[in-house]
Structures are given as C-alpha cells and as structure tokens.
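> forwarded from #structure-qc
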C-alpha cells in the first residue's frame, strides 16, 4: 500500500474517535491539554493495537471476526452511549459545576475499544494484502492520537456552551456510531 493510501486509511480510522473525543472533552470541566493528550494516547494505543489483532485473527479465522465485530461494536457503543444519556438527564444545574476534570482510565479504554473495532476489521482485510502491518498500525495510532487530542480541545470550548447537554449529545453520538456500524454491515 502506498504512503498516501496509508495516511488516508489512518485518518479515516480516527474519525469515530475524533467525534467521541469532542463529546468527552465537552463533558469535562475545562479539560487541560494534558488530559486531552492522555485521552489521545489511550485512544491512539488502542487504535494501533486493534488492526494488529485483526491482522492476526485474519490469518487464523477471518470469517468469524467479520461476522461478529459489528455486533460487538454496536453493543459496546449503545451501552456507553446509554450510560452517558442517563448521566446527562440525571444531572441538574448544580451538578454542572461539579463536572469531572478527567475521565477514568477504564472508561476511556472501553470507549476506545468500542470505536476501534472497525480498525480490527480493517486489520483482518489487511491480512490478505501485501502491507507492512506494523507501519500501518502505527500510522492509525498516530492519526488517532492527533485527532482525539484535537477533539478533546474542541470539546473544551463546546462544553461550556452545551452544559450538561454535552453528555447527552455525546451519548447520542456514541449510539449513532454504533447504529451506523450496524447499518453499514447490513446495507452492504
């Protein structure tokens, strides 16, 4: 695969993480750049690992992975999105001022996994092409690191405008991504 195609693939794979990171940044109380970078590193690492896992699985049992990855992503994203919706509706104005300054590590890892399952499916496909999977995975991880960090900082500025609705919007984004993954699988 040529370099330009790898770069386009990398940034294409990072778009889900970018959308989610905007809502993650918006739901925090003035997240610092260090928190945005931390989130970017977590998402980038997970996004770099999943195509490697997919590539390995593609070498072993690609049909099983391709049959189930969309359902796993859908369930995880709807669960996380539903959780955010509930938290957003549960809150009131007094709670808005108590917005956390950072997200928990495991919440970020779970969200990163849910948004990176498409990268695992891409990894399965890459197993059948002549590509340098390590380089491709690193490019995907770096693009995700960049886009997630930028998304968190964009969310920082959108958050005060949206207030607690940012969490509701973020939940809807996660559910929407899950539905889109499922729809694209069944639509062809």
């Amino acid at each position: 695969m040529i370099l330009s195609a790898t770069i386009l693939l990398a940034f294409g794979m990072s778009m889900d993480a970018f959308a989610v990171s905007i809502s993650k940044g918006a739901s925090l109380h003035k997240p610092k750049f260090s928190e945005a970078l931390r989130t970017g590193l977590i998402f980038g690492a997970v996004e770099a690992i999943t195509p490697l896992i997919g590539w390995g699985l593609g070498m072993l049992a690609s049909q099983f992975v391709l049959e189930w990855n969309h359902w796993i992503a859908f369930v995880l994203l709807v669960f996380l999105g539903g959780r955010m919706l509930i938290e957003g509706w549960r809150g009131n104005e007094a709670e808005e001022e108590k917005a956390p300054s950072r997200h928990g590590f495991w919440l970020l890892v779970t969200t990163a996994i849910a948004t990176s399952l498409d990268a695992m499916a891409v990894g399965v496909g890459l197993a059948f092409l002549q590509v340098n999977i390590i380089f491709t995975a690193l490019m995907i991880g770096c693009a995700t690191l960049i886009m997630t960090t930028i998304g968190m900082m964009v969310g920082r500025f959108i958050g005060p405008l949206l207030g607690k609705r940012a969490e509701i919007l973020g939940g809807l984004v996660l559910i929407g991504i899950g539905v889109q993954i499922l729809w694209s699988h069944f639509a062809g």
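QC bot note: The CA atoms of residues 57 and 124 lie 6 Å apart. Helices lie at 3-13, 15-27, 33-90, 93-96, 105-126, 133-162, 165-187.
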